[in-house]
């Protein structure tokens, strides 16, 4: 059996971050002689021992190829792999057949974009024609997108002659929904947008965007990387057609993620990657493909990683996603208040009343983001610096880089206070202000 340090399921008990930290041994170390304050979970989260144990247990007890053998280990590996699919699918409100394993959200978004490109070339079953793009058709994204939800659509537009348009953001970081209503029109075929901006931390109006898209028959694609670890998530209830998320941002391993799709959408999409394990019959001239999700899972799959991700979502479920969100909301409020009180700090996406996750990006007047990050690191505080794979959004706010502090369920109020105390000394240290 896989050992587990996951808490017992609880939907009402408040989250005790100090107690949970015992499950994350990496948080007990010292960095540069200081207690580690890890505020970079937006880039990658730490892993509880239950996740590490799940992967190790599989690799030492049941390691074998899945869906490819009749011997005992192969059968057990396949069962564990498909059980993991059911567990992770359930975490986002989906059925197992609606979850495609990918290597991460980037792979999932590229899968969708290239599959639609294949449909545009006439590939796939007759139902695939619904996705075919013609010159002049439109793909609508937002100005807040991570490059992973921008560049695949740029490439698809270049291959098909479609036009890429974007919904702008207001000065406070919220989406310009009036502009969205104008941009999404009769030529719109795809609306792709992030659930939560990885720079701004603001939860976007999913229902409004989905309604605009579906009113004109467009397909919706949701980037849920920054929402899946932090908010209760029911993808079917959100009404999106397709969605992606990454395991390493939600306490899980690297190299695994999920692509959710409505059953009719996945059934109609042609494959992107082709090869073994995604076919029914093959001749030297042609091939017939399996139904979803296997149609999109050619080649060797991330088996131990999928099993580790299932352990991660069991851990999150044990804590309770409502408790996670409530805890991180309190950290976000404490962090935001503290950041606003430090002279020379400019917050990005400081929209009063906006729904948020526990993430803030900011600029320090007179000090480059990389220098801020190194100063904080010397004091044991780990944050993200740079453009966070969102150059257009930074350009919108007149920046090339920012500092981002992002929390998770294992962070405490003391973590926030240590971070704020360290940050308050940055400008004086670099001679940029008191």
Automatic annotation (TrEMBL):
<dbReference type="InterPro" id="IPR015422">
    <property type="entry name" value="PyrdxlP-dep_Trfase_small"/>
</dbReference>
<dbReference type="InterPro" id="IPR020578">
    <property type="entry name" value="Aminotrans_V_PyrdxlP_BS"/>
</dbReference>
<dbReference type="InterPro" id="IPR010970">
    <property type="entry name" value="Cys_dSase_SufS"/>
</dbReference>
<keyword id="KW-0663">Pyridoxal phosphate</keyword>
<dbReference type="InterPro" id="IPR000192">
    <property type="entry name" value="Aminotrans_V_dom"/>
</dbReference>
<dbReference type="Pfam" id="PF00266">
    <property type="entry name" value="Aminotran_5"/>
</dbReference>
<dbReference type="InterPro" id="IPR015424">
    <property type="entry name" value="PyrdxlP-dep_Trfase"/>
</dbReference>
<feature type="domain" description="Aminotransferase class V">
    <location>
        <begin position="37"/>
        <end position="419"/>
    </location>
</feature>
<protein>
    <recommendedName>
        <fullName>Cysteine desulfurase</fullName>
        <ecNumber>2.8.1.7</ecNumber>
    </recommendedName>
</protein>
<comment type="function">
    <text>Catalyzes the removal of elemental sulfur and selenium atoms from L-cysteine, L-cystine, L-selenocysteine, and L-selenocystine to produce L-alanine.</text>
</comment>
<keyword id="KW-0808">Transferase</keyword>
<dbReference type="InterPro" id="IPR015421">
    <property type="entry name" value="PyrdxlP-dep_Trfase_major"/>
</dbReference>
<comment type="similarity">
    <text>Belongs to the class-V pyridoxal-phosphate-dependent aminotransferase family. Csd subfamily.</text>
</comment>
